[in-house]
Structures are given as C-alpha cells and as structure tokens.
TrEMBL record:
Its cofactor is Fe(2+); Ni(2+). Its EC number is 1.13.11.54, 1.13.11.53. Catalyzes 2 different reactions between oxygen and the acireductone 1,2-dihydroxy-3-keto-5-methylthiopentene (DHK-MTPene) depending upon the metal bound in the active site. Fe-containing acireductone dioxygenase (Fe-ARD) produces formate and 2-keto-4-methylthiobutyrate (KMTB), the alpha-ketoacid precursor of methionine in the methionine recycle pathway. Ni-containing acireductone dioxygenase (Ni-ARD) produces methylthiopropionate, carbon monoxide and formate, and does not lie on the methionine recycle pathway. Belongs to the acireductone dioxygenase (ARD) family. Fe(2+) binds at H89, H91, E95, H134. It is found in: Cell membrane; Cytoplasm; Nucleus. It is a peripheral membrane protein. HAMAP family: Salvage_MtnD_euk. GO terms for cellular component: cytoplasm; nucleus; plasma membrane. This is Acireductone dioxygenase.
C-alpha cells in the first residue's frame, strides 16, 4: 500500500523521508478528496496484461506510453533534470506514472499549502491532476524506472510556480472545491 505523510519543514537532503514528528499519515481516500491525486496498484511484472491498467488505458484514452529511468547512468542531463523535477510546478495535463522498479517521492500541495509526500514503489500507479502544484524526487536509493502515459501528443512541460493565472490551475481549484464538498 502506498504511504502518504505530511512533510516537515526541514530543508536538508530532499531524498530523506521528511516525516513530521510525530508522523502525520494520510489514507488514500483522503488524499483523493484533499488533492484529487488517484492511486492504483498494478502488477508491474506483467503490466501489459494487468486488467486494471487495461481498463484505465481504454476508459481514459491513454494512447501514448513510454519509459523513463532516473539514475545517474540512464538519465541524460541527470543533475539538471532532477533539479527541475524538484522545482514546484504544474502541468496542463495529468501526470501518470507506473513504477516498474525502484522508488521515489511525489510531493503535492494540499489546499492549505502543506506538502504531502507520496512514496511510490514498484507497482504503484499514480495520477497527478493537471493544475496541482507538485514536485518529484528520488529517495536515497537514487533509482526509479517508470512508465509514462498520456492522452494524445505528450506535453511534459513543467510550469514553475507561480502559475496561478493558467486555465488548468483555475479548473483544478474549482474541481477541488467539488471533491472536498
Ligand atoms: C518518476 S517520473 C520522473 C518525474 C517526472 O516525470 C515529472 O514530470 C515530475 O514532475
Ligand atoms: Fe511534474
């Protein structure tokens, strides 16, 4: 099961857990109503035949997919890429990632500007909504391999905060009001 917790304010190494003391964890149902982030468990060893993934792909129209490996060896321009992943940003489209190997953290803002840290490991499929401020970091294992899904021609562009005037941001905030009602 995926683990989610509120982060502390410590600015040391981003790859550490950064749990508050005492830890404040969150259930997936609450993560959804508070942020719109969705989570699915997939059989990463046979993802092409995973029923849940097949359904997601057809229901949501994911017609593009590729793979990204984040490690010093495999990711071109590694240091700069990791820096840009960890800068607070949003996208005009959902960010859909299925972890095949390794692990990492997706951090998302809740409506009160707190950081929620979502630990992802093999078999975790996470959908980060368009318009939510978020960031990604490797953990101390320094390795993750993930599949990326997209509807249509992929747009990976991160829009760094502040991006409050963007339509996708406004739409996200409106959706959040409905989700938490
Ligand atoms: C594990 S995928 C790497 C992170 C990424 O693709 C992204 O867009 C972060 O916001
Ligand atoms: Fe992103």
């Amino acid at each position: 099961m995926v683990n989610v917790w509120y982060m502390d304010n410590d600015t040391s190494d981003q790859r550490l857990e950064h749990k508050r003391q005492p830890p404040t964890c969150m259930e997936l149902a609450e993560l959804y109503t508070k942020t719109g982030v969705e989570y699915f468990k997939i059989n990463a060893d046979d993802y092409e035949n995973d029923k849940e993934l097949m359904e997601l792909r057809s229901q949501r129209g994911y017609n593009f997919e590729d793979e990204i490996t984040c490690s010093e060896k495999c990711l071109p321009d590694y240091a700069n890429k990791l820096k840009s992943f960890y800068a607070e940003h949003l996208h005009t489209d959902e960010e859909i990632r299925l972890v095949l190997e390794g692990s990492g953290y997706f951090d998302v803002r809740d409506s009160e500007e707190n950081w929620l840290r979502i630990q992802v490991v093999k078999g975790d499929l996470i959908i980060i909504p368009a318009g939510i401020y978020h960031r990604f970091t490797l953990d101390t294992n320094n390795y993750i391999k993930a599949r990326r899904y997209f509807v249509g021609e992929p747009v990976w562009t991160p829009h760094n905060r502040p991006a409050d005037d963007m339509d996708c941001r406004k739409a996200y905030l409106e959706r959040l009001v409905q989700l938490s009602a």
